[in-house]
Design goal:
heterodimer, A: alpha/beta, 3-stranded antiparallel β-sheet, 11 strands, about 45% helix, about 15% strand, globular, disordered N terminus, B: mainly alpha, 26 helices, about 0% strand
């Protein structure tokens, strides 16, 4: 707004000026002034935020099931304490939905200014629920200084979180992509599409499975299958209400009806999580595991949970990928500090550390070309774990379907197979 | 009377808490949840509930697992009591009870999971030599869709509890005399139990049986760890709905919780009717004069089952340290190939923090529950003879399903700013520990010969001094065991910790259940190991301290008085 207004008022004043040159000079001056005013204003705003943030505590509610991720968050806590005087406390969630339901409970109890959550790790359906219910603060993310490293056009998932417009209400943190994991000792040529997977299962009954929806990785498996089986994948970006779900999802159910009798435990039970899949792979109960964490296989080998002959791979037509974010609840008492933490999470320093395979291996949301040469080099020099794929090997990424597909797929799945 | 008014105040507070929890479940069940914009009462949540595809199968699973587990546990407990009471096995039986009672069921279930799964320890021990398996078989042993593994876990947990209650009740019956008399008439031991003693015992343990039944029908943590998941039992299904991102599911989850309460009531009622019927039809057989019957061998079988159950429980606990200290343990190795303390070292900070929180909560709860129980029992003593209404509602917390009730309380916790605080967790734990403390303390406390206190009061003229130094000191045995029980119950609490602690307050139990569900065996075993170890230690300590307290105290005071004497000289 500021950008637009200032030049026009300037123009009005100098209307009497005659020469074209003068006009151009004034034009340029106006633009310059407005630009300086804008950046200094933003700078002053951020300074204010930094001052307000000092001494505040941030309760960061984030899924706590990964040892390596928890340790990374501890590192972040140490950094923001040293750099900004912020106390960051990690509240480990078993499921992000817990935090969502707590926010609801807080709103119903009228606790509108000192909620228990200051920052939360979020995306997809949880984000939509909070945004729809107006339970998050914002827009804020585009004003974060480090947001300048993010190129929104680089990936659709940066602005459309499972089809929900982000609109600055959450700040990007990392990228995930589905990878499949197998042991080269048991399997020489792993199946690279859903149809090959079915064929493999029919030849080797009981050796294929996927996590149980609504566990998010399980739901992702359904989306991956749907993407490969559906005639026109572009309908996936439509809200379910606008299409004939019954008809369009039929190929998926036909596929699963064929797959389930030859899955692990004949489809009577499904593993609870990605970690359970890793365990089953190591016990050789199953032959292929999947993960949303590209470095998962390397990390698990390191921890002695998988053999060092294990490798990861992706399907030929690409795999589902998404962006995960952090958001600030409407009733956080430390909104300034939460923004500073969100900004720190976006910094090249924190993003390089996060992408280090021995730390976490989570892909960065920053765009390569917006970084300085030195920062680019830091990313380029990152070692890769023995079972981690490079960006080129990860290949094509498939965007998440609209959020509404999640609930539709989950309830249809449960209605069919969880009876 | 000060004590009476304090006791009344506490009772009123407890009753208010219960009421809030129930109302907080009832209103959303009828479509009233203003925060989500539901302000008009309607039957919609119930309609949605009955249209949910998983409801009926969840319900069947719940009924099957809950009732079967209770029947088996009761049968094994009765059989074991008949076979072992007053025999040389009695000592071992009693020794086996407290450890199994003390160990939190989550730890036991995690052990069972790692023992019995197709890639579990049992098959590892037998493979490949006996079974010929190089890879785990594609069998369904744990988390089976019929909930048999859940039934097993429940039986392991509940049989010792019922036996404990049975032993306490049997002491009030003339067991020895009955058996002697019966045997002179030529009746076999087990027949005497069946025809004479068990019918007398049953009414005495009816309430504990209902507690077991209610627990089995509503348990969350055990069912998450070892129960089936497609579908899960009703309590777990409701739990999932309460936690779902789709907030409107809360309404039908509340309706489901009310349904669960009704199911408990109906099951208890039916159980009683079946008992009356069975009793009616077997009355004739009590006096048919048969000296020994086939039923004797069933009872014997039942007591062997108890042995088997204990053996499985022992193995399940043994597998925990194996996983906790394994670095690499692939199928089908019988033991880990590589050991390491890495996990332990890497998580020392976390373990210390979790253990401190867990113990801090447990000891505070034990302390508070003891004080409340003593106050109320003192009140009850003064009212002897009349019906004491506290006795009636003290059972309600353990009979109500946790899943609806606690979510009903959640809003009240937030409103009072107790959510996510240690105080909130302690409050909810107290609600669940108090019944156990009160009930175990009740017998010995009311039996206390008040004359000792009167005498002490007459001598000292100091009521508090006489009360603490004489009455409580004489009751230190029961007081300490009640405290140990409270510690064990508190350590085992999963859902109350989760709801009141909101993830900010974590205990060994919440962490262990989360890890077991995620499948991280090493860390989960480590947590479960500590979780099992702590209450055991507390039980042993309680026993040890009660035994030696007086001699220690005397030794210290003698030394002090010696010193005084010396300095006086």
């Amino acid at each position: 707004m500021l950008n637009d207004c200032v030049p026009r008022t300037f123009l009005a004043r100098i209307n009497s000026a005659t020469t074209r040159l003068q006009q151009i000079c004034c034009y340029l001056l106006a633009i310059l002034v407005s630009f300086i005013m804008h950046t200094t204003a933003a700078h002053a705003d951020w300074q204010q935020t930094l001052t307000a943030a000092k001494g505040q505590s941030v309760y960061f509610n984030a899924w706590g099931g990964g040892d390596n991720i928890n340790q990374y968050i501890q590192w972040v806590a140490k950094q923001v304490d040293q750099q900004y005087g912020i106390t960051l406390k990690h509240v480990k969630l078993a499921d992000t939905a817990d935090a969502v339901s707590r926010l609801i409970a807080e709103k119903s109890a009228g606790r509108d200014d000192d909620g228990s959550i200051d920052l939360m790790w979020i995306n997809g359906e949880n984000f939509r629920a909070l945004k729809d219910q107006k339970l998050i603060y914002g827009p804020f993310s585009q004003n974060l200084p480090n947001y300048r490293y993010v190129d929104e056009s680089a990936r659709q998932s940066l602005t459309l979180d499972f089809g929900t417009a982000v609109e600055g209400m959450e700040s990007p943190w990392g990228m995930s992509q589905v990878v499949f994991i197998y042991d080269t000792q048991t399997l020489s040529a792993p199946p690279t599409s859903m149809l090959e997977l079915l064929e493999y299962a029919q030849q080797n009954p009981g050796r294929i499975t996927y996590p149980e929806p609504p566990q998010y990785l399980g739901t992702t498996f359904l989306k991956q299958a749907l993407y490969e089986l559906i005639a026109d994948p572009s309908v996936l970006s439509e809200p379910v209400e606008n299409i004939d779900f019954e008809l369009l999802s039929k190929p998926l159910w036909d596929y699963l009806d064929q797959l389930h009798p030859v899955t692990w435990r004949s489809g009577d039970v499904f593993p609870a999580s990605a970690e359970a899949m890793i365990r089953l792979l190591d016990d050789q109960e199953i032959d292929i595991s999947l993960s949303f964490d590209v470095s998962s296989a390397s990390v698990q080998i390191e921890q002695g949970n998988l053999a060092d002959t294990v490798r990861s791979y992706v399907f030929d037509k690409g795999t589902i990928s998404n962006t995960h974010f952090v958001a600030i609840p409407y009733n956080s008492a430390s909104k300034a500090a939460s923004q500073v933490v969100a900004n720190f999470l976006l910094s090249p320093q924190a993003q390089v550390k996060k992408q280090t395979p021995t730390v976490w291996g989570d892909l960065t949301v920053l765009s390569h070309y917006r970084l300085s040469a030195q920062q680019q080099q830091q990313f380029a020099q990152l070692p890769r774990g023995i079972a981690t794929l490079s960006l080129e090997q990860l290949g094509q990424s498939i965007p998440e379907p609209d959020t509404s597909w999640v609930a539709a797929l989950e309830s249809a799945w449960r209605a069919r197979y969880a009876k | 009377m000060k004590i009476v008014s304090i006791s009344r105040l506490i009772s009123a507070l407890l009753l208010a808490l219960l009421a809030i929890g129930v109302i907080g479940t009832l209103l959303p069940a009828f479509n009233y949840l203003p925060v989500l914009g539901y302000t008009e009462f309607s039957w919609q949540p119930w309609i949605n509930l009955f249209q949910a595809p998983e409801l009926y199968s969840s319900l069947m699973l719940t009924l099957f697992s809950g009732i079967t587990a209770t029947i088996i546990a009761l049968f094994v407990a009765l059989a074991t009591l008949s076979c072992c009471y007053d025999t040389r096995w009695m000592r071992y039986l009693q020794a086996s009870l407290s450890p199994v009672l003390a160990i939190p069921h989550a730890a036991m279930a995690i052990g069972l999971l790692f023992l019995l799964s197709p890639s579990g320890w049992v098959i590892r021990l037998l493979s490949p030599e006996v079974t010929g398996f190089d890879r785990p078989p594609n069998w369904l042993t744990v988390q089976d869709p019929y909930a048999l593994s859940l039934v097993l876990a429940l039986v392991i947990k509940e049989t010792p509890y019922l036996l404990f209650v049975l032993l306490a009740s049997a002491r009030q019956l003339p067991v020895k005399a009955s058996i002697q008399l019966g045997q002179t008439l030529g009746y076999s031991r087990l027949t005497i139990w069946r025809k004479l003693l068990l019918p007398l015992l049953y009414p005495m343990i009816r309430l504990p049986i209902f507690v077991v039944l209610a627990f089995s029908l509503t348990v969350i943590d055990l069912a998450i760890i070892i129960g089936p998941n497609t579908p899960s039992t009703l309590a777990v299904t409701l739990f999932r709905w309460f936690q779902d991102a789709d907030l409107t599911l809360r309404l039908q989850a509340s309706a489901g919780s009310i349904l669960l309460i009704m199911i408990i009531a109906i099951c208890c009622w039916c159980w009683q009717q079946v008992y009356l019927l069975a009793h009616y039809f077997s009355r004739a057989s009590y006096s048919d004069g048969q000296r020994r019957t086939k039923a004797d061998s069933y009872l014997k079988l039942g007591s062997y089952l108890y042995l088997l159950i204990m053996a499985v429980a022992a193995l399940a606990l043994l597998v925990l340290p194996l996983w906790a200290f394994a670095k690499r343990w692939r199928f089908p190795d019988a033991l880990p190939a590589k050991w390491s303390l890495d996990k332990f070292n890497a998580s020392t900070d976390l373990l210390t923090q979790l253990s401190t929180t867990t113990l801090l909560i447990a000891f505070s709860v034990a302390f508070i529950a003891l004080i409340i129980s003593v106050l109320i029992l003192e009140h009850k003593r003064l009212f002897s003879g009349k019906v004491f209404w506290f006795d009636r509602f003290i059972y309600i917390p353990i009979l109500l399903p946790q899943v609806g009730f606690l979510f009903g309380l959640q809003i009240a916790l937030i409103w009072s700013h107790l959510n996510g605080s240690l105080a909130g967790v302690i409050l909810l734990h107290t609600l669940y520990c108090l019944p156990y403390v009160y009930l175990t303390l009740q017998g010995p406390y009311l039996k206390f010969q008040q004359a000792y206190y009167t005498q002490a009061l007459a001598l000292t003229q100091r009521p508090l001094y006489a009360f603490v130094q004489v009455k409580l000191a004489m009751l230190k045995g029961p007081l300490l065991s009640a405290a140990a029980l409270a510690v064990a119950v508190s350590i085992a609490q999963y859902l109350p910790t989760l709801v009141a602690g909101e993830g900010r307050i974590n205990t060994l139990t919440t962490e262990a259940v989360a890890l077991a569900a995620s499948g991280e065996r090493k860390q989960a075993s480590l947590m479960a190991l500590l979780q099992a170890f702590m209450p055991l230690l507390v039980f042993i300590m309680a026993h040890f301290i009660a035994k030696h307290w007086t001699s220690w105290r005397l030794a210290i005071s003698y030394r002090a008085s010696d010193k005084n004497n010396i300095s006086a000289k």
